[in-house]
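re: that chain from earlier
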Amino acid sequence: QVRLVESGGGLVQAGGSLRLSCAASGRTFSSYAMGWFRQAPGKQREFVATISGSGSTTYYGDSVKGRFTLSRDNAKNTVYLQMNSLKPKDPAVYYCAASESRDYVILTLSSQYAYWGQGTHVTVSS
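^ sequence. v structure.
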């Protein structure tokens, strides 16, 4: 069982930055691929980014590529989503997710993740 707790959401002006964190419980954090998804009101959950257990591989959704950076610190059981150049289309509830998987596997579907956090809200003012 993995428990995920997100933090770092809030209100930011368009063009600004936020860093989201996701802290995980458990002693085998490096065995889990970690992903971020977001869901805006009335819209489907959207893939944002994923990182392999070792941190060697990352993959981003087209809407955030070049603006967001996902990293992890396995010693702290934490992943970080650095969000730069935030746009009016970015507001949503951002969810952290975990999936036990081989290190080279890229997971972009929400159904591939077994564990989810409660989400953190990101609001962007224009």
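The mean pLDDT is 95.
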